[in-house]
Design brief:
778 residues, alpha+beta, Helix Hairpins, D-amino Acid Aminotransferase, Chain A, domain 1, five-stranded mixed sheet, five-stranded antiparallel sheet, 42% helix, 17% strand, globular, binds nicotinamide-adenine-dinucleotide, binds zinc ion, EC 6.5.1.2, manganese, NA-bd_OB-fold, BRCT_dom, metal-binding
Length: 778
């Protein structure tokens, strides 16, 4: 194989790997700009060596793949990616190409030039006078046409390539593409982009989004097919809320809202998707009945009238000058939006012109994404320290010379885990590039001077816990482990297949053994580790959990140092150690009184808060609330089996407690340690039960009303509907009686409908229910 062929293959493999991380696993390891640079490099090589372009090259296809777990659906019209640019000049070059292809004068000139060329070919070999004369006339005409063409283009450039109908500029919302199909105005199918040809059927998940209308308004019901394309995204406040819950449940936080969206859409249980606060914005079309809309700007207008959400910041721009002005203006504005935007998408507005421009193998020619570069800054890496989490996880953190980036001064960046740190080969003294994209925590992008002489040795990760000297436990990337484990099976399968087909087997190469590069986590397994204890107590006492007034980080450290606290229970025994407490630095009588009162008050927070406070893996405030409501007391919870925990329904609907959560809570409750902790808390008089939903609000539009919910609602899970009823002052019931005020019926409502009719209980559909919640008439 030639060097170039090898280089192309290596690059393609590398890009393919990044695609998988980005689209399938939703955890990219390089920035978009670096990714785009790799792709550009490949494109250049391939352009010079067209014979080496493989049909599955990343330059020839769109990155995602449909997932096995969902039904794959073929798109009626392909879903494309969009070409990127980071420079104003690329944008004007793009506009020029569009202009040349659609401006009537240039098109006329080009077709005449083509005609001249054909005539010239016809004259080839003829040497007589007539032919010479014809040739001269032809050349003169060609020169004339070329001059006219240049003039026309020069003028167009000055005016900003004023294409007929102009351009449309819209924010490029950073989310996940989806196609939504409406037939006679009803939502019938939602599909991800997948590989552009086939995507995943995510209809059920999309139905849970409030911004996805299940039925369109106005003229839409008279139109056979309306297929729109849009972006599903997670607004910033939802992203922060979801991350707070994940962190408090001991799970890894989402890296950014886009990854969070991709993850939530891939959930098999729509109730979980519903909990992520996703939203939709429509920005394009798939198949739409002919004659319905003629341009991008008209489409957006019609969508609004049909009740489909579009971006109010979209604007028609007559020229590239206006486009660039929009881009500049928007760079300021995007900071204040409550959703992530990574650029501006510009499109030729008129659909007939779009059709004339057509597509390349990956992109529409009539569309371009202008991307804002993520703010990055170089700085020096001073040290790497290890942070302890409440589950015992040790996370490497870079300490750097402070640097100003994306609006704040940054001096720490996370390195995630030892694998990541080793793959980036980050060492002390390096100049590193850091960035803050949609993420809250700054990231180290890469080392800028990896070939510098006299570089320090790689940092050796701790083999024992830096706080308690217990040997650490190392975990490796699950996917790599499966790959290694499954290799013999793959070899065998190939041999069998080859034997059947009567050919030489071509067994897959043996995957390399796991190394430090595959490390995904390092843990201190010692439950009594003081560093973990501090993190756990800190979590236990915080707001969303036991909410103990006066027990902050500093006080916890003091208590641990003085040996006054070694467990959660010890907190509730502190009143016996009053004398010791007063002696602590900066404490004094009054502060001790406050602290002890805070601890006393926390005793009655109830089971849900206690479960959330214990830092059990995967158990955050949502899961603990569902569990406490369902079981009512610790004893009832203790009596439940794993299979019951994972399958119980709250009033006929999925509880949202999947197998992972069920196993985690079960194991904790029945572990020696869990039992000891909970028994201790029980003896100390901590309330380990939960009042059933009687904690109704004392005001609201539903005050004093009882509502029963049945069937599947599009906008909420059963639990959420109940929570909304309570928040509005009402009482959610489970069985119908004469005392029931309303029956809220979703899809597949079943026998309760007949019973309601019998009892004379009014039935509400979802829209009427929402109207009632909002304080109006149903
Ligand atoms: N960092 C990595 O490892 C990595 C890996 C793969 C891809 N990527 C990034 O993803 C890009 C490719 O992803 P892509 O194919 O999804 O392209 P893209 O995200 O750059 O743009 C295309 C998408 O933009 C969306 N979009 C948002 N607002 C829109 C609007 N108003 N109008 C039209 N479309 C709009 C559409 O859903 C469309 O599918 C790469 O260029 C790279 O930047 C990064
Ligand atoms: Zn330890």
């Amino acid at each position: 194989m030639t060097d170039v062929a090898q280089q192309i293959q290596r690059l393609a493999a590398e890009i393919h790997d990044h695609d998988r991380r980005y689209y399938v696993e939703a955890s990219p390891t390089i920035s978009d700009r670096e990714y785009d640079a790799l792709l550009e490099q490949l494109r250049r090589l391939e352009a010079d060596h067209p014979d080496l372009v493989a049909s599955d090259s990343p330059t020839q296809r769109i990155g995602g793949e449909p997932l096995d777990a969902f039904r794959a659906v073929e798109h009626t019209q392909r879903m494309y990616s969009i070409d990127n640019s980071y420079e104003a000049e690329e944008l004007t070059n793009w506009a020029r190409r569009c202009y040349e292809a659609v401006d009537p004068q240039i098109v006329a000139i080009d077709s005449e030039l083509k005609e001249l060329e054909d005539r010239e070919t016809g004259l080839k070999g003829k040497r007589d006078d007539a032919a010479r004369q014809q040739r001269e006339a032809l050349n003169a005409r060609r020169a004339e046409l070329r001059a006219a063409r240049d003039n026309r283009l020069d003028a167009a450039q000055r005016e900003g390539y004023p294409i007929a109908g102009g351009y449309c500029a819209e924010p490029k919302v950073d989310g996940v593409a989806a196609s939504l199909r409406y037939e006679a105005g009803r939502f019938v199918l939602g599909v991800t982009r997948g590989d552009g040809v086939r995507g995943d059927d995510i209809t059920q998940n999309l139905r849970t989004l409030r911004s996805v209308p299940l039925a369109l308004q106005g003229s839409a019901s008279d139109i056979g097919v309306i297929e729109v394309r849009g972006e599903v995204y997670m607004p910033q406040p939802e992203f922060e809320r979801v991350n707070r819950e994940l962190v408090s449940a001991g799970d890894e936080p989402l890296v950014n809202p886009r990854n969070g969206t991709a993850g939530a859409l891939k959930r098999l249980d729509p109730a979980i998707t519903a909990r992520n606060g996703l939203r939709l914005v429509v920005h394009g079309r798939g198949a739409i009945d002919p004659g319905v809309v003629e341009s991008q700007s008209a489409l957006l207008e019609r969508c609004r009238a049909w009740g489909l959400p579009t971006n109010p910041l979209a604007e028609r721009c007559a020229t590239t000058h206006a486009l660039l002005e929009y881009i500049e203006r928007f760079e300021q504005k995007k900071q204040s939006l409550d959703y992530g935007v990574d650029g501006v998408v510009v499109k030729v507005d008129r659909f007939d012109l779009q059709e004339r421009l057509g597509f390349t193998s990956r992109f529409p020619r009539w569309c371009l994404a202008y991307k804002y570069a993520t703010e990055q800054a170089p700085t020096e890496l001073l040290a790497i320290d290890w942070q302890m989490g409440k589950t015992g996880k040790l996370t490497p953190r870079a300490k750097m010379t402070p640097v100003f980036v994306a609006g704040t001064t940054v001096q720490h960046a996370t390195l995630h885990n030892v694998g990541e740190m080793s793959r980036k080969d980050v060492r002390i003294g390096d100049t590193v590039l850091i960035e803050k994209a949609g993420e809250i925590i700054p990231q180290v992008v890469k080392v800028l001077d990896p070939d510098r002489p006299g570089r320090s040795d790689p940092v050796v990760p701790p083999r024992v816990c830096p706080w308690c000297d217990t040997p650490v436990v190392i975990e490796h990337d699950q996917r790599r482990l499966q790959e290694i484990e499954g290799w013999p099976r793959r070899v065998q399968r190939e041999q069998e297949l080859a034997a059947k087909q009567g050919r030489e087997p071509e067994p897959p190469a043996e995957p390399p053994p796991v190394s430090i590069l595959d490390e995904s986590g390092r843990y201190c397994p010692n439950p009594a580790c003081p560093a973990q204890l501090k993190e756990r107590l800190w979590h236990f006492a915080s707001r969303g959990q036991m909410d103990i007034d006066g027990l902050g980080e500093k006080v916890i450290e003091q208590l641990l140092q003085a040996g006054l606290v070694r467990s959660y229970g010890d907190l509730f025994r502190l009143h016996e150690r009053r004398a010791d407490l007063v002696k602590l630095e900066r404490m004094g009588q009054k502060k001790v009184d406050n602290l002890l009162a805070g601890i006393e008050a926390a005793k009655g927070r109830g089971l849900a808060r206690v479960l959330a406070a214990l830092g059990i893996r995967h158990i955050g405030s949502t899961a603990s609330t569902v569990l406490a409501r369902q079981y009512g007391s610790l004893d009832a919870l203790l009596a439940a089996s794993v299979s019951e925990l994972e399958s119980f329904q709250t009033d006929g609907a999925e509880s949202g407690i999947g197998p992972e959560i069920a196993r985690s809570i079960f194991e904790y409750l029945h572990s020696e340690r869990g039992v000891a902790i909970l028994e201790d808390l029980r003896e100390l008089g901590i309330v380990l039960s939960e009042e059933k939903p009687a904690v109704a609000a004392r005001s609201g539009p539903l005050l004093g009303k009882t509502l029963v919910v049945t069937g599947t609602l599009a906008g909420y899970s059963r639990n959420e509907a109940h929570a909304r009823i309570e928040a509005a002052g009402g009482k959610p019931g489970s069985s119908l009686s004469k005392a029931t005020d309303y029956l809220v019926a979703g899809e597949k409502a079943g026998s309760k409908l007949a019973k309601a009719a019998q009892l004379g209980v009014p039935v509400l559909n979802e829209a009427q229910f929402e109207a009632l919640l909002a304080g109006g008439e149903p």
